[in-house]
Amino acid sequence: MNLLLIGLASVYTVAGCLGCNPHYDKNGTYYLMANGQRLNDYALTVALTPSNFRAYKNQYVKIKNLKNGKSVFAKVTDTGGFAKYNRVADLSLATKNAIGCSSLCNVEVSK
Fold first, then answer.
1. I need a labelling partner for 60 at 20 to 30 A (CA). Which of 5, 22, 34, 76 fits?
2. pLDDT < 50 stretches in the chain
3. pLDDT of residue 20
4. Which helix (H) or strand (E) holds 47?
């Protein structure tokens, strides 16, 4: 199954994870992603819509910034409600920084 999404991507971080459910341990608050891993600002990860998440869970997809041509491979680890805002993905902080995006970015997501 091939994946090709083109559109606006937003960013989610530990400090600004809208809609995330907090969990707590002796080290403080953390957020679990849909694949069961903790949200990590330093990992190259991406959240996709629920149907795309199910199809590509824990696989690597190519994320390309359409403005500057920079790209990186990121692991599909999460899902979110960003589609209702006409966005195709949510990028981790590391993914956003690797491709030189601001808080919103026009991207191509492919597999």
1. 22
2. none
3. 66
4. strand 45-48
The model's pTM is 0.89
For residue 97, CA distances in Å to 14, 34, 36, 47, 84 come to 15, 22, 24, 16, 24
**pLDDT given at position 61:** 98
- Please name the helix (run of DSSP H) or strand (run of DSSP E) that holds residue 7, with its range, or none: strand 4-12
72 in Cβ contact with 81 (< 8 Å): no
DSSP 57-111: TT-EEEEEETTT--EEEEEEEEE-SGGGGTEEEEEEHHHHHHTT--SSEEEEEE-
- Taken as a whole, the chain contains a residue count of 111
Q: What is the C-alpha separation between 46 and 60, in angstroms, rounded?
A: 9
pLDDT at 57: 96
* Residue in the structure block whose two tokens are 């500057």: 68
50: part of which helix (H) or strand (E)? helix 50-56
Position 101 scores a pLDDT of 96
Which tokens hold the place of 13?
């971080």
